[in-house]
Amino acid sequence: MNRNDIEQAINSGEIMLKNLNKALKYAKSARRWGRVDLFTNGIAGLIKHRKMDRAKKYVNQAQMFEDRLTAGFKKTEFYLPGMNTPYEKLYHYTDSFAADYLAQEDIVDCVNSIAYSIKGINEVLENLRNTLEKVKE
């Protein structure tokens, strides 16, 4: 990788981090609203779904930059969650404790996956920055 490729990868990684941090913020908020939704009916479920929709939007935006970040690497040490669940339609159309519980489990998994992705991207960025310093020398 040359200096320009490394700088592009770093820029892509930083954009990914911004998007994933926003996704994490919305996913954590959805998790909190999901806890409320377990024991209530109504608006809490709608808010939870909107927060997860926003989190999904930011994850999708981050994924657009994944190829640029990982160019030149044979193996990546992070995972970007797709956030597509088999129960997604059930969650939107069923307001039951079982559906809310399954949704809550998936939300918690998404929060953990996003946090894991952020950690991995930070490690990749650290390696890229170290490589860039060596290239400058």
Descriptive account of the structure:
The protein has 137 residues and is an all-alpha fold. Helix content is 80%, strand content 0%. The protein is built from 5 helices and no strands. The chain has helices at 3-39, 43-63, 66-70, 88-93, 97-136. Helix 1 runs antiparallel to helix 2 and helix 1 (3-39) runs antiparallel to helix 5.
What is the overall silhouette?
A: elongated
* Main sheet characteristics: none
> Count of DSSP helices?
5
Count the beta strands.
0
- Could you tell me the strand content as a percent range? under 5%
- Mean pLDDT value: 82
Termini separation:
15 Å
Task: Give me the Rg, rounded.
Answer: 18 Å
Which structural class do the helices and strands define?
mainly alpha
- Percent helix, as a range, is over 70%
Ranges where pLDDT stays below 50 over 5 or more residues in a row are none
**Topology order in helix (H) and strand (E) letters:** HHHHH
